[in-house]
Amino acid sequence: MKKKKLLLIGNGMAGVNVIEHILKLADDRFEITIFGKEPHPNYNRILLSSVLAGEAQMQEIVLNDWEWYGERGIRLHTGIEVTQIDTDAKKVYTDAGMEADYDELIIATGSLPFMLPVPGADKEGVIAFRDIKDTETMIETAKHYRNAVVIGGGLLGLEAARGLLHLNMNVSVVHLMDTLMERQLDPTAAKMLQAELEQQGMKFLLEKQTAELLGEERVTAVQFKDGTTAPADLVVMAVGIRPNVGLAKASGIEVNRGIVVNDWMETSVPHVYAVGECAEHQGIVYGLVAPLWEQGAVLAKHLCGVETAPYKGSVVSTKLKISGVDVFSAGDFTDRPDRRAIRVHDEWTGIYKKLVIQDGKIVGSVLFGDTSDSSRVFKWVREQAELTPEIHGLFTGVGAQKETGNGGSVVASMADDELICGCNGVTKGAIVTAIKDKNLSTVDEIKGCTGASRSCGGCKPLVAQLLQHVKGEEYAADQAPEEAVCSCTTLTRDQVVQAIREQHLTHTREVMHVLGWKNEEGCSKCRPALNYYIGMVWPEEHEDERTSRFVNERMHANIQNDGTYSVVPRMYGGVSTPEELRRIADVAEKYKVRMVKLTGGQRIDLLGVKKEDLPAIWSELGMPSGYAYGKAVRTVKTCVGESFCRFGTQNSIQMGIDIEKRFERLQTPAKVKMAVSACPRNCAESGIKDLGVVGVDGGWELYVGGNGGVKLRAGDLLCKVKTSEEVLEITGAYLQYYRETGRYGERTSEWVERLGLTAIRQAVVEDREYRRELLARVDVALAQLSDPWQEVTQNERLRKTMYEEIHVSP
Amino acid sequence: MKQVIVGNLGEIPPASGKVVHIGDQEIVIFRLSTGEYRAVENRCPHKGGPLAEGIISGKFVYCPLHDWKVSLEDGKVQAPDHGCVQTYPIRLRDGMLCIEMVEQLQ
Lengths: 810, 106
Ligand code: SRM
Ligand SMILES: Cc1cc2nc3c(=O)[nH]c(=O)nc-3n(C[C@H](O)[C@H](O)[C@H](O)COP(=O)(O)OP(=O)(O)OC[C@H]3O[C@@H](n4cnc5c(N)ncnc54)[C@H](O)[C@@H]3O)c2cc1C
Ligand code: SF4
Ligand code: FES
Known about the structure:
The complex is a heterodimer.
Chain A: E1 4-9, H1 13-25, E2 30-36, H2 48-52, H3 66-71, E3 75-78, E4 82-86, E5 91-94, E6 99-101, E7 104-107, E8 111-113, E9 126-128, H4 132-144, E10 147-151, H5 155-166, E11 170-175, H6 187-199, E12 203-206, E13 210-215, E14 219-224, E15 229-231, E16 234-237, E17 241-243, H7 246-250, E18 259-261, E19 272-274, E20 279-281, H8 289-304, E21 317-319, E22 327-331, E23 339-346, E24 351-358, E25 361-368, H9 374-383, H10 389-396, H11 408-412, E26 419-421, E27 426-427, H12 428-438, H13 443-450, H14 460-479, H15 493-502, H16 508-514, H17 526-537, H18 551-555, E28 558-559, E29 565-567, H19 578-590, E30 595-598, E31 604-609, H20 614-621, E32 633-638, H21 652-663, E33 672-677, E34 691-696, E35 699-704, E36 716-721, H22 724-741, H23 748-755, H24 757-766, H25 768-783, H26 788-794, H27 796-803, E37 806-808
Parallel strand pairs in A: 1-2, 1-7, 2-3, 7-19, 9-16, 10-11, 10-16, 11-12, 18-20, 32-33, 33-34
Antiparallel strand pairs in A: 4-5, 5-6, 8-17, 13-14, 14-15, 21-22, 22-25, 23-24, 24-25, 26-27, 28-29, 29-31, 30-31, 34-35, 35-36
Helix pairs in contact in A: 1-8, 12-14, 15-17, 20-26, 21-22, 22-24, 22-25, 24-25
Chain B: E1 2-8, E2 16-22, E3 25-31, E4 37-41, E5 55-57, E6 60-62, E7 69-71, E8 87-88, E9 90-93, E10 96-101
Antiparallel strand pairs in B: 1-10, 2-3, 3-4, 4-8, 5-6, 6-7, 9-10
């Protein structure tokens, strides 16, 4: 059978989604050609906001990479615009002079941003927020200019403004109305949102109408109708979008606001279909992705001759993708005389929830501050559920229905057909089945398998909860966010640290007493943890409690199976000298150490040393402790690097030595191992270190959360920097952030997964002010420390009480 | 019974242990946080760990090697593990610590 020619105009989210569906249904029925105006493969437009906010990298948002097209035999023409459709000859023409035939044609040309037709709108520095190019322009502009004005206080405008704020611009949002996002929020929620964003540094110019954009070639200010102005080096217009229908209209296809389609996505012309933001179905044009998936599924089946229910329109919900601001709304939530609302408004915690009821049915909702209920609420709205006492109880948290705890049971109480991922239409049932059948164990695997959380990512927490719920106790024990410090208390790490901070507790006994420990003197689990937390919070006041230290950290040597100890002196960056090696050899001989061994950490271990010999050995070695025994900064391994290696791009040895000297002795929740390699061949194994540095031409890459131990884990790329100073700075901030937020005993590999790379990147890389604060605090902690071996050799009392034993004759 | 004088008070910080070699015997004297003293054999019944280096909590010590919890009152290992270490009566005489040892043990 000869293949039919399927042609797609618009290489965007809606169009390519249809192709994906078709390939799944009927692999080889069509010969597929795609024309796309943008010079990129299909990417996730939604996440442009995240790229701008520094939460994702540009390359991470690609949905279908170049290979994807190639492997499926799809002819892709990017950077090319289709300028004409001849629906009689079934041919399209492009601006590049190409032409192509089709048997079936899909138009998925999306929308065009609406630009206010005010004088000056064509000046340099005036853009929209729609595609990669706009995003890149904003990132670039932020490097050279200071003032940004975003026109439009809707979803898109606020996300653009948040991103620009993150890029350190001075950002004002201009809005015609007196409340933000008036189409998605009621006035109460809108005011709460405004207050929250103002706190983040955003400025608002409400009830302002833009009259003109001032400036010569480049814009310099925005002038309003009331005569006032605002300085602007960059103006982002986010006042709305309109369906991109020019091509269809010119080709004689019926167009209203959008391209008119029926329930099978057929246009007025046979063999021509439309999906996505350019299509109008029953008078409605959608501007969100959820409807696109639904439309796409119907069209794909229709084209493949598979039976399908007709498309009957979509109910949409909105979420704002600004971290730290949880906003959700769905349906019709405006107040009217014939409607009643259930409101929960807690000004103390900043939570506002509203459920709107008409004729006993739920028709709309707004959630602010706590959106953990959103998927359930959305289901009620979508189905126009009857308000029952049970729903009332669930929503208000009154009565026994509201679950307590960490919310894990929110997912437990959901029905199988409830949507978890609104964007991609993935139900709870589908995820549960995938987890069980394919034995999935991470959110990423679920994303890969089911598509859940693949678009806006807002449902990630729910997916994680569901995973935990399905995997049950075993998984919960591993990952449970709320674990008590130990069996002496029910309090969690965070609660204990908070008490130490707020009540200024400076001794483990004080903590245990004030917080009502069941076991008056604690146990071997909590005492070292408390000692660490106190030292972390009050570095200057805290007096280290030796009796709350595990033997190795108390003795500053590693205890062995026979009660002897090992001695690992520091060798910065793994570099030694002949003289030093001679000294080590002499000491080893003199004290008859059982073995001299090279460690996996690029230094030397003297094994089998008697406790009483430790101080003398340390003194004769004249080297500082390598902390091979501590929850502390351990080693910084290095490769030979630029000084010797033909591939080296950086002086990795010096970088490693500098890091080790700067941060040695620092106490951390669990041990910290670092490495510096001078090229991606990674001979120092930087990829599996708590912090791994990799030299590249003109800079360094920093990887975090790697582990080569029990749970093998490759590090994640935290950032790229240019100078060694930046490496030291970010390392310091990273270590301090880990010190402040890590649970005692938790390696960075677990910590990075628990906090998420984005949060860590935000704290230690992007928020420069916070980075400086972290650095200042790590310096205070470092200033308290000195070499423990030297301390012992110089303090006779310490030597006597700690290392000497008593010998009496019977 | 034989009394062995092992030393004076000041040497052991609270909640710490001190190893005493008496002939080829190894005993540890613990000073509890209450100020009381306890003496036990310095050998964990599990794999011989030196109890002297453990963390002391109330009247228990946690072995430094694998965290077994041993009572300093009766020498019993706490559940879920089991076993027992030898305990020795200890008293203060004229500011000096004395351990009472059974003659034959020497
Ligand atoms: C000496 C050394 C082995 C050697 O001969 O090379 C060593 C020896 C011990 N390691 Fe290790 N590790 C040594 C390199 C490593 C490495 C390799 C590395 O650092 O590049 C790893 C995997 C890398 C990693 O941690 O990401 C490693 C992963 C572990 C782990 C698993 C940690 C984890 O979170 O997965 C433990 C157990 C623990 O810490 O709870 C451990 C624990 C131990 C202890 C301290 C066990 C203990 O508590 O007594 C061992 C002490 C033996 C002794 O009697 O002295 N050792 N250990 C290495 C010392 C390096 C140094 O110079 O400081
Ligand atoms: C910053 C931002 C954040 C967003 N956040 C969300 C969100 O959180 N949730 C949500 O649901 N939605 C969100 N959206 C909306 C969502 O991205 C769109 O609904 C979706 O991308 C529309 O898909 P589409 O395929 O219809 O259009 P598009 O993705 O715009 O694809 C159309 C493609 O067709 C190309 N094209 C147009 N004309 C031609 C031609 N003649 N020849 C060749 N190619 C042509 C265009 O260049 C474009 O690449 C957001 C949008 C933006 C810009
Ligand atoms: S791998 Fe490490 S912990 Fe295990 S036996 Fe070897 S040195 Fe000890
Ligand atoms: S030797 Fe004491 S617990 Fe193993």
